[in-house]
Structures are given as structure tokens and as C-alpha cells.
UniProtKB/TrEMBL annotation:
Residues annotated as catalytic: E177, E383
Protein name: Beta-glucosidase
Annotated catalysed reactions: Hydrolysis of terminal, non-reducing beta-D-glucosyl residues with release of beta-D-glucose
GO cellular component, one term: cytosol
Residue numbers binding substrate: Q31, H132, N176, Y306, W430, E437, W438
Organism: Microbacterium esteraromaticum
InterPro entries: GH (IPR017853), GH_1_N_CS (IPR033132), Glyco_hydro_1 (IPR001360), Glyco_hydro_1_beta-glucosidase (IPR017736)
Length: 478
């Protein structure tokens, strides 16, 4: 697909979304809740990581975040004000199972129960993710995702949540972006728990896949309502550069994309992935029967998309090009495989405040490609959005035209995918609120609602008003 041109800038207008298309917004527990030590919650790996000097910008932590835990009613009202049809949130595992004893913390369950009831009372569909990166610290101390026993604990946690909320949630999502959990957490080290162990990263890939399958079985066995079941992946939409561009793209596609879609949607790891990584691991952590467990039917595949990535083969000698630590790194620019290394290179702009290139055509391409690879699989955009450096105007409003433009262009891309026959069920804007942006702390703002981190006051940004109008009219404005 050719890149967008001024004549084809993805600024569609008047495009109408179908009546059953779901408009939502998303958040995650550690990024918004705060109340880190309250009502029985114990530390997660992100509490430990953010309290480790030098790990997070400015020494920021999620101790208070948006204080959503205490302001949940106000935030529910905000969702009503915006007209959201669905809300995607995640559950903090260390609130539910705070210690290695496995005892259940009823206060943790009560919080999410109130949230789900509050959503349903307002006619907003609850979309609940079990794991958005806040692994209980006691499980990391026992080996984390590199250890198979973590999948036992995840299955028990899924059972508990299925029993507690499975009569009322609209959609269960097992994992959010296991790529980040495995590769950034255990390989590149920029995310918690901050380990630099390539073999552990690949073991984590498998254990996350296995945890997904086991959790789906547990959720299905315990949910008494009629929820949909899903998982959310962040896909690398790749461009290649230089000699061997297609080989570089194939390698990263295997490592970043097909290492999850292979087992989850086809019941196998891609042969080229196993070959590419043979100098790092023999994959003996994959036991007989695992792949059948991982390969469970899902109702909808969650797709997170922000930008494209450009890769090229690297000779291991010449200076590496600039690389964005969050987006491109799979254990530095050159991992795994000692024979042939791949580096991520700078993308042509324009960029968001994250330094990520703005490429709405990549979203259309991704959705079409997924629906070609998995023709019977319904899709949902579970995250898309942008960080920009917002400013509050003298009149108290937050004009953020760049974010509105970003969203408009990506909604146009999604609409084009629909027109091309993709079974796309909905779209969740990341994020409802400015929040704790992981290694960047509070320095990067993704919200359509501004949060003043001194007063915790919420202000709907212009992009939020724009989104409210889109939801109300179901049409991109002319
Ligand atoms: O903030 C994150 C979110 O937690 C996972 N997906 C990407 C977002 C922006 O970096």
C-alpha cells in the first residue's frame, strides 16, 4: 500500500459508521487508579520498577495517578458526558490476589464490581482486561513470566474474576500487549521487571500465550452471562530499508506479531521464528499439549495501533541509527539471533510527542491484512490515540487540534477498512484520561480528558468534545 499523499490524507468527512459499531475509550489499572497501598492491594512489578531510581522519568510512580480508585463515580459521569458506548479497563491482579497464599481480597473484587455496575447503569458496556502489565511482585519474585507456575496463578485469578464479574461484563480480554510484557519487560528491560535476558523473554512469550489459553478456559467455565472473549495484541506494521529489507521485516514480523497470532489463532509457533531464535533458546519450555491449550476460539481480536516501524538488517559494526526505546526495541536494536541482527530506524515524520510517526494508512493496512490472514476473525481497535503537549487556554479549555486530527485520520482509516469488508466491530480511543505513561511517567498526555496532576481536576479536551459529537452523529464531521 502506498503512503498517504496530500491528496489522500485520510481526513475523510461525512463518513457514516454502522449502527452496531461500538465507540469506546480505554484505560489501565496501574495508569489511573492510584490507591496503591489501599484496601489490601500489594505491590506489582510496576510499583517496584517505578520506585527504582532511574527507571521512570522524574521518579514518577502510580501511587496516586489519576486517583480513579476514589473518583470512580466522577469518572463514570465523565463517560456519560462523552456518550461512550463501551469502556475498556483493566483489573489490578494484586488487588484481587494480594499474596502468595492465594487468598482472595473481597475489597478488590468489590471495587471492580461497583465499576461494572456503574457502567451498566449508564448503558456503557464493560470490557475488562485481566492483565495490563501489573504482575503481583510476589509472582515476579518466584520467576515472573519466565516461570511456568505464573500461568497456574493466572488461571486461578481468571476463575475468581469469571465468578465475580462473568455475569455482567460484555467482553473479557485476557492480556493487553503481551509483546510489551515479554520483550520490553524481560529482554530490553525498559518496562517492569526490567530484565535483560533474551531467553527469558522468549519463555515469557510462551507463558503469556499459555496463560491466555488457560484463562480463556477458566473464564468460560465460570462466567454465567454471555460475554465475548478476546485478547489484545499490539502489532508491528513494518516497513523495510536497505538490502535485505524483506528479510528484516520477516524476522520482526515473526518475533513481534506471529509469535502471538501463531499459537493463539493457528495453534503453532511459526517455523521461521523457532529457527531465527535457535541460538537463544531451544523452546523446550513448550510442553506437549500447550499449543492446544493456547489455541482457544475467541470472539474478537483486539488490535492496538499507533504507528509503523521501519527495520533493516544491521551488520553489527556500523553505528546504529536512532531508535525509540518503547516502540522499536526488541532488546536493544539487535536482538535476538547472533548471526543476523535487525535494527529499528527512524521513521519519516510527522510525529506525536512520543516521537512516533503518524501513519493512518498503517491502520487500514493492518486491519485488512489481519482479516486476510484470519478471515473468520472479528476485529476491534482496542487502542489508538496520541500524546501531544497540551496547554490549557486562558478560558480554561484545552484546545488539542493535533490529537483531534490524529483521531479523525485514524477513524477514516478504520472506516476504509470497513468499506473493504473487514469485520471491524468497534474502536477504543486511548486514552480516556491523561495518565501514568509507564517509563515516561506523567510527561506524556494521551487523554481526551485532561488531568491536572496537582489538583486531579478533569477537563474534557477539544478532542473529547469532537469524539462526543462523532459518537452522537456516528459520522465524521464535514
Ligand atoms: O499507555 C500505553 C498503554 O498502556 C498500552 N498501549 C500503548 C499506550 C501508549 O503507550
Amino acid at each position: 500500500m502506498s503512503p498517504s499523499t496530500p491528496a489522500d490524507d485520510y481526513r475523510g468527512s461525512g463518513l457514516l459508521f454502522p449502527p452496531d459499531f461500538v465507540f469506546g475509550s480505554a484505560t489501565a489499572s496501574y495508569q489511573i487508579e492510584g490507591a496503591a497501598g489501599e484496601d489490601g492491594r500489594t505491590p506489582s512489578i510496576w510499583d517496584t520498577f517505578s520506585r527504582t531510581p532511574g527507571r521512570v522519568w522524574n521518579g514518577d510512580t502510580g501511587d496516586i495517578a489519576c486517583d480513579h480508585y476514589h473518583r470512580v463515580e466522577q469518572d463514570l459521569d465523565l463517560m456519560t458526558e462523552l456518550g461512550l458506548e463501551a469502556y475498556r479497563f483493566s483489573i489490578a491482579w494484586p488487588r484481587i490476589v494480594p499474596t502468595a497464599s492465594g487468598e482472595i481480597n473481597q475489597k478488590g473484587i468489590d471495587f471492580y464490581s461497583r465499576l461494572v455496575d456503574g457502567l451498566r447503569e449508564r448503558g456503557i458496556r464493560p470490557v475488562a482486561t485481566l492483565y495490563h502489565w501489573d504482575l503481583p511482585q510476589y509472582l515476579e519474585d518466584a520467576g515472573g513470566w519466565a516461570a511456568r507456575e505464573t500461568t497456574d496463578a493466572f488461571e486461578r485469578y481468571a476463575e475468581v474474576m469469571g465468578r465475580a464479574l462473568g455475569d455482567r461484563v460484555d467482553t473479557w480480554t485476557t492480556l493487553n500487549e503481551p509483546w510489551c510484557s515479554a520483550y520490553l519487560g524481560y529482554g530490553q528491560g525498559g518496562h517492569a521487571p526490567g530484565r535483560h535476558e533474551p531467553a527469558s523473554a522468549l519463555a515469557a512469550v510462551h507463558h503469556l500465550n499459555l496463560a491466555h489459553g488457560r484463562a480463556l478456559q477458566a473464564l468460560r467455565a465460570t462466567s454465567t452471562g454471555d460475554p465475548d472473549y478476546s485478547v489484545t495484541l499490539n502489532f508491528h506494521v513494518l516497513r523495510g530499508q536497505g538490502d535485505g529489507a524483506s528479510e528484516a521485516m520477516r524476522r520482526i514480523d515473526a518475533l513481534a506479531n506471529r509469535s502471538f497470532t501463531g499459537p493463539m489463532l493457528r495453534g503453532e509457533y511459526p517455523a521461521d521464528l523457532l529457527a531465527d531464535t535457535s541460538s537463544v533458546t531451544d523452546w523446550s519450555f513448550v510442553r506437549e499439549g500447550d499449543l492446544a491449550t493456547v489455541h482457544q476460539p475467541i470472539d474478537v481480536l483486539g488490535v492496538n495501533y499507533y504507528s509503523t516501524a521501519t527495520v533493516r538488517l544491521w551488520d553489527g559494526i556500523s553505528p546504529k541509527q536512532q531508535n525509540d526505546g518503547h516502540k522499536g526495541a526488541v532488546g536493544g536494536t539487535a536482538w535476538p539471533g547472533s548471526d543476523q541482527l535487525v535494527e529499528f530506524v527512524e521513521q519519516p515524520g510527522p510525529y506525536t510527542a512520543m516521537g512516533w510517526n503518524i501513519a493512518p494508512e498503517g491502520l487500514e493496512e493492518l486491519l485488512v491484512s489481519l482479516s486476510e490472514q484470519f478471515p473468520d476473525q472479528a476485529l476491534m481497535v482496542t487502542e489508538n490515540g496520541a500524546a501531544f503537549d497540551d496547554h490549557v487556554a486562558d478560558d480554561g479549555t484545552v484546545p488539542d487540534p493535533e490529537r483531534t486530527d490524529y483521531l479523525r485520520r485514524h477513524f477514516t482509516a478504520a472506516h476504509r477498512a470497513l468499506q473493504r469488508g473487514v469485520d471491524l466491530r468497534g474502536y477504543f480511543v486511548w486514552s480516556l484520561l491523561d495518565n501514568f505513561e509507564w517509563g515516561y511517567g506523567y510527561a506524556k498526555r494521551f487523554g481526551i480528558v485532561r488531568v491536572d496532576f496537582d489538583t486531579l481536576q478533569r477537563t474534557v479536551k477539544d478532542s473529547g468534545h469532537w469524539y462526543r459529537d462523532l459518537i452522537r452523529t456516528r459520522a465524521l464531521p464535514v
